[in-house]
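Handout, tutorial session.
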Amino acid sequence: MALHLFLAACWLALGSALLLWPDLALGRRVSGYWGSGIAFLLCLYNLARWYGARSNAAAQLQQFAARRRAERTAEESPPVRNPEFDFSQPPPPAEQPRGEQPS
């Protein structure tokens, strides 16, 4: 991630140097507009890649934190059991229809 930021700074420095070269060339007619334009585009490209990697890392961190919160709440809450499928206790006595006596 820091590599993209470093490369953007290098391209910015090169583009600035190429743009200012005619002023530093001591009267020579040297044009660095094309080179400086390409260097500035590469600077913008590396800045976009740096920003994309940074925001992607932040989004992954948020997803990881949300997943950990969900796992933690699942571990803390007791499991919900359906009493119809709980075979650890004896079944309740069956209801007798009205009017009949148990024999």
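The second record follows below. Compare its token runs with those of the first.
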Amino acid sequence: MMDENDPALEAPVFDVWRCIGCGRIEAPQPCIGVCEDRKVQMVEYRDYVAVVSRLDDATDRIAALENALRRVTLTTPRAGEWERSYRALQEDARRAIAAAAATRPLQAAAPEAADGADP
């Protein structure tokens, strides 16, 4: 889950004046002509692109993790094969977590179990 207080997600917002007729943008003073201005908020394009890119990455990670979880919930092992199925699902989940961690920018991966044993 992304931290909403992450400074990398905070893009500076600028109050500007945009004409509702012609679309002209000015800051910080309103036009004194015949145009009718409304105050709008804008962010710099590079900040917007950075946030959208991080959102796309997070969406991809969520999809991969949902797929691993879906396999856990939809798999019914054959009689006497529960342990083999469990181990295979564990390995799938580990791969999904590793792939998600590898694409996560500037954040530490989830801590491993202290004793290194399987749950």
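Points raised in discussion: The helical segments are 45-74, 82-103.
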